[in-house]
Amino acid sequence: MDRLRLVGLAAGGLLAVCGIAWAVGGVLTAGQVPAGTTVSGVAIGGLDEAEAVARLEEELGPRADGDLTLSVGGMGDVPGEELTLAPGEAGLEVDYAATVAATGAGGSWNPGWLWERVGGGDEVAPVVSVDDEKLDAYLSGLDEELSTEPVDGAIALKPQGPRVTEPVVGLALDRAAAQDAIVAAYLSEDGTAELSLTETQPDIDADDVARALEEFADPAMSAPVTLRFGDSAVQLKPRQYARALRLVPEGGVLVPQLRPKALAQQLGGLVADDGAAPVNAEVRLLAGKPRVIPAKPGVTFDQAEVDAAFLDLVTRPEGERELEVPAQVVEPGFTTEDAQALAITEQVSEFTTYFPYAEYRNTNIGRAAELVDGTVVKPGETFSLNGTVGERTAENGFTEGFIISNGIFKEDLGGGVSQMATTTFNAAFFAGMTDVEHKPHSFYIDRYPVGREATVAWPTVDLRFRNDTPYGVLIHAHLTPSTPSAQGVLTVRMFSTPYWDITTKTGDRYGFTSTATRTLDTADCYPNTGYGGFDIDIWRYWRRVGSDEVERTEKMHTTYIPSDTVICKPPGSLPG
After folding, report:
1. Under 8 Å CB-to-CB from 127, ≥6 apart: which residues?
2. What CA–CA distances, in Å, run from 576 to 408, 520, 573?
3. What is the pTM of this model?
4. Vertex 191, ends 189 and 192: CA angle to 5°?
């Protein structure tokens, strides 16, 4: 019994000692960080909480406030780059108190806790506080800076053919991964966060573009299409209808679409407006060269029927690209083929005259040139200046100017139009036109070629010539107005296929006559210093182009009367 009692007493004593040690340890280690504890390499073991917080702020603070390095990986043609980030800009900071608390600092009667205080702690990760709003705002800005929008592929149908815009893959920041990487890099040894970009695909990719090219764009622009209105066929070339077609993105693919107004406009250039009268073909001077402007048949048809079938029509294979359009057709009287048969191809003559400054000349000669310009004289036709220009009235665009009447100058509507007559006569002379009617001025005007000039007066005196060549003749007239410091210039050019090579000879003047003197007291008297008259002969020689043989000789004789000297007196001052 004594032995058992001794064992019991010993055990009780040991427990008492342990209890005392436990109690003393609990008291002594209360509020301390476990021995050996470190936070990001900063030793805080054995320190009380306040001391541990202060040490972390002192030693970990500079690292916590230092910039992070963001390494953004490149992709494709986009190179990688490195950026710096201040932790505060992204809402990152260390919660020092929470970090110390996470080490297990504080009081506890748990034997295990007491043993950690005595036996030593571990490396503890700092507790990082993240301001989610700040970090999200920073990542939004970074995404906007680094990302590129994808570019949809596209096809534009141009007169030269399909023009392709290649699709481009976009890039975007992986926001979730970037956030995790930035938080993980904060307080790490190298302070570097690896960020990645991800591809964003365009809605219209390369496959969509290739499919649209193969199925629509290339066939559509491969060959003309023909619209047949009864017996009248109209051909549309791809360069003509390209503006009426487009490919639009729809549901991730390119879908063909028609522009009905553009198609109607293009058809309007080939046929008269729906229900309108036909339009004859023309020959016009464009960019200095004669061009045939095609005729337009008068056609009544339903434009909606053409619109509905056109997208299918342009994708048909060669040999099937024709559409029958129910219509009523009225053919033009002068067709495109008729205009082409005129063979008006190049300039065959040109003549220029000059005139002194006068506003009435600018007005009257300019108006006459405007009316003559663009006239086409067909083979066998006779041109009439009076018939083309019309009566010289104010309503027809003419004003008063000087004319020659009874051997002296008078004012009348259309004065100066004889400049147009002389210039046109000489252009026709050298183009090989047959002289039907021309009347020289009654007395000679020295700005005109002697013996080779003409005057006109409505309706009795006209300039007429006939086109006896097998080709049509296009007349072009151009006026450069006179100014107080510069003469006016009038040029008449004729276009055809060269047929005659014309040369000329001017004889000597003869049969001279003397001037007379008139004294007038009329209100419309205009003084004049006169000069004598004379006779002159002109010869024209006709040779075929490329031949030296003279096939025809023409002689023109002109008698110029004297230009009287006119002395003006006050009206009514002369004896009756």
Report:
1. 94, 95, 98, 99, 102
2. 21, 11, 9
3. 0.56
4. 120
**Residues 96, 99, 104: CA angle, nearest 5 degrees:** 135
Q: Any idea how long the chain is?
A: 576
- Least confident interval from 19-28, 140-149, 467-476, 491-500: 19-28
Using an 8 Å Cβ cutoff, are 346 and 495 in contact? yes
Write the CB contacts of 134 (distance below 8 Å, at least 6 apart in sequence): 89, 90, 91
Residues 506 and 555: their CA atoms lie apart, in Å, by 10
Three-state helix/strand/coil letters over 330-352: ECCCCCHHHHHHCCCCEEEEEEE
**Which token pair is 341?**
């048969």
pLDDT, tens only, 196-228 = 888 899 999 999 999 999 999 999 999 999 999
Strands (E), 414-525: 434-437, 464-466, 473-480, 488-496, 500-506, 510-513, 517-520
Alpha helices in 373-512 (DSSP H): 385-389, 417-431
- Summarised one tens digit per residue, pLDDT across range 134-154 is 888 888 988 888 888 899 999
pLDDT of residue 51: 84
Specify whether the CB–CB gap between 465 and 382 falls below 8 A. Answer: yes
Three-state SS letters, 116-175? HHHHCCCEECCCEEECHHHHHHHHHHHHHHHCECCECCEEEEECCEEEEECCECEEEECH
pLDDT, tens digit, 9 for 90 and up, residues 384-443: 999 999 999 999 999 887 555 555 455 555 478 999 999 999 999 999 999 999 999 998
The whole-angstrom distance between residue 349's C-alpha and the CA centroid of its chain comes to 38
Q: 236, 296, 297: which is closest to 262 by C-alpha? A: 236
